[in-house]
Amino acid sequence: MIRRHVYVIGLAAATLCLPTATAGAQDAGLEAWQKIYSVFSHPRCANCHVEDERPRWSGAHYGATRVHGMNVQRGPDGFGNAGMRCVTCHQQDNAAQLHGPPGAHGWHLAPKEMVWWQKSSQEICEQVKDPARNGNRTLEEIATHVRDDGLVAWGWAPGNGREPAPGSAQETYLLLQQWAAAGAPCPAE
Amino acid sequence: MKLNVNGRDHDIEVEPEMPLLWVLRDKLSILGPKFGCGIAQCGACTVFLDGEPVRSCSVTVGEVSGAVTTIEGLMPDGRMHPVQQAWIDEQVAQCGYCQAGQIMTAVALLEAIPNPSDEEIDNAMSGNLCRCGTYPRIRAAIKRAASANAGA
Ligand code: FES
Ligand code: FES
């Protein structure tokens, strides 16, 4: 009888605890996502994750937000137009001269469906999870892409007084893993 | 350090951080590419790196692994390049300072798109500034070179 009692109490406690534990994981996931969002929405990342044809110039030291000068556009492959490719100005490394063009290997725009520019936390979150809009990647593949890609890495080392994205590639990789492990929750609008 | 420019190998002693434009003009006395802004804003310094147009003021010589072509390299056999000929026929140049860069970009455009539309011309040429405002003649010369291509 006593035994049964304990069992019932245990069961009740477990039932009570269960939603709390899930909510805890959900909260931790959302907290991780919030930090990821602060990276993805940062101008060093979002300026080139645009829906239209034109990368943006924006961020702490850019003054007013503008479309990229010189009529620069996405072009058929995301690497610019014939005669004026991204690499025409953006080389392997940041130019040393003040206000010179930044550089990293394979400078180009993110595909159109990966829109972060002026999107809400929830919108970017849903987009990142959707294989049709994330380059058909698993969450683990997204995390390793963020950790290992040379152009993504530039966002944390933009050089020449440009404000870097928060944290680091490794921290963002770990946050993406934590977020995925917590069920990849997205914030409500 | 070795550098291949217009089909010729050069041995140069320079810091790898030196902009390619400095090397071309000051070390090799190749004066076609011009210095306008030094920060990839004007296009006067445009040359080809392995056939792709680049602003040579914003490429360090240490980043160069392939062959460099300047406007001098457009006529290896001494014959005018069709785009240069079109520039003369349309009398494009005013002061001329920007024109080496304009021609290099136009050549790159026409290699990729032999018969470009006005929009494609704008998309290629908007990074090459001309203080003299020769833009209408630049457009006309590109169209002339395109039709010369088509006729050839
Ligand atoms: S001098 Fe190189 S772009 Fe102006
Ligand atoms: S002809 Fe003078 S700057 Fe173009």
UniProtKB/TrEMBL annotation, chain A:
The keyword Signal applies. InterPro entries: Multihaem_cyt_sf. Residues 1-25 form the signal peptide. The keyword Signal applies. Keywords: Signal. This is Uncharacterized protein. It comes from Rhizobium subbaraonis.
From TrEMBL, chain B:
GO terms for molecular function: 2 iron, 2 sulfur cluster binding; metal ion binding; oxidoreductase activity. Signal peptide: none annotated. The keyword Heme does not apply. Residues 1-74 form the 2Fe-2S ferredoxin-type domain. It comes from the Bacteria. Keywords: 2Fe-2S, Iron, Iron-sulfur, Metal-binding, Oxidoreductase. This is Isoquinoline 1-oxidoreductase alpha subunit. PROSITE patterns: 2FE2S_FER_1, 2FE2S_FER_2. CDD domains: fer2. InterPro entries: 2Fe-2S-bd, 2Fe-2S-bd_dom_sf, 2Fe-2S_ferredoxin-like_sf, 2Fe-2S_ferredoxin-type, 2Fe2S_fd_BS, Beta-grasp_dom_sf, Diverse_Oxidoreductases. It comes from Rhizobium subbaraonis.
